[in-house]
């Protein structure tokens, strides 16, 4: 089967066409600045150079149309006609409490997703527009929704409730949901597979450390806790997001700076994290360089980042009463040996020992811990698109 995987943002659309038998990516690309002047399509067929085109994309339907044209283009395309696309898998950010797994997208399901819009006002409406655009252009092709929140729906109430009046949960569903679920599911399953074990027999902590970052505790195959909350702002210090802070800071800064709580929220999402702390960059490559050149704030930022990760891991060891596997994934987790080492230095109490040479490997599946380490520490590259394609095939 050929599956088109679509990830729609408010002004962007990422796609991959995946052959589900070989799990090969036939083509991938990105539409940027949809609805804004200067919209652009970057299309990359497998084994060929990227093709960039400035195209007029007033809306997502136009963007999907250009993607379909790029995929069937006689020169740069990878399929002869749209009939070759057997199914479409969509990444959907928020499924609220309604979705604990992937679903075939029907009118009823779209209505239920629309009801989750207020929990992810920037993301869900964009996801829905992407789905409707595909329905318009390819009405016969089955579509599947894969939710970022679904894997975490197994969290018990003690993990998902906040210590605030219960009525806010009853009235507005204010609770912890967690995100990056597709990645936490994929990586924990793959970690078990690499070890030749069943995930149902293991206690796994997945550290998804990318620009957005989250940790999850996967106990015998089920997620029992994760670091992101009602929104992806909670938890770790991220590229530009603050992660956990004292909630009183919002009011305090709003008062001092003469701005609204909404504006502070934007600062916490877009100008905080390692970017705000270091005053250098949200990119860990820039931070590593600055730190190596002796920039003290860059060094402190990396220390604060690693410390927060280590504290979360510790709390999940407590939550699961132990841990068998700690898996690193995503941009930083897969590639940044220095940050991994800084984090692993805290795990002496767990009996973790790391092979320094193996820790230098980038972007590959590898076991970093020594054979006698009490806990297996590994790198497992994530692949959310492949996970979405697999879910799609399983459902259609
Ligand atoms: P992601 O959101 O998963 O794409 O991760 C983005 C983050 O990964 C950025 O902060 C990058 O600095 C980091 N990253 C990606 N590649 C590398 C690399 N080769 N070395 C160090 N950090 C990297």
In short:
The chain is α/β, with parallel strands linked by helices. The chain has helices spanning 60-72, 107-115, 124-137, 157-160, 166-172, 181-194, 248-257, 261-270, 273-278, 284-292, 296-320, 330-335, 337-344, 356-359, 384-395, and strands spanning 2-8, 13-19, 24-32, 40-45, 51-54, 87-92, 103-104, 143-147, 203-209, 213-219, 222-226, 325-329, 366-367, 376-379.
The level of helicity is: 25-40%
What is the molecular shape? globular
How many beta-strand runs? 14
What ions, cofactors and ligands are bound?
adenosine monophosphate
Strand content: 15-25%
The strand order across the widest sheet is 5-4-3-2-1-6-8-7
Largest sheet: 8 strands, mixed
| Poorly predicted spans | none
Class by SSE composition: alpha/beta
Gyration radius, to the nearest Å? 21 Å
- How many helices? The count is 15
The end-to-end distance, rounded to whole angstroms, is: 10 Å
Give the ordered list of helices and strands: EEEEEHEEHHEHHHEEEHHHHHEHHHEEH
Task: Look at the structure and give the mean pLDDT.
Answer: 96
Q: What can you tell me about this protein's structure?
A:
The protein has 396 residues and is an alpha/beta fold. The protein has helices spanning 60-72, 107-115, 124-137, 157-160, 166-172, 181-194, 248-257, 261-270, 273-278, 284-292, 296-320, 330-335, 337-344, 356-359, 384-395; strands at residues 2-8, 13-19, 24-32, 40-45, 51-54, 87-92, 103-104, 143-147, 203-209, 213-219, 222-226, 325-329, 366-367, 376-379. It is built from 15 helices and 14 strands. The strands form 2 sheets. Strands 5-4-3-2-1-6-8-7 form an 8-stranded mixed beta sheet, with helices on both faces. Strands 11-10-9-12-14-13 form a 6-stranded mixed beta sheet, sandwiched between helices. The longest helix is centred in the last third of the chain and has 25 residues, at 296-320. The N and C termini lie close together (10 Å). The chain binds adenosine monophosphate (AMP).
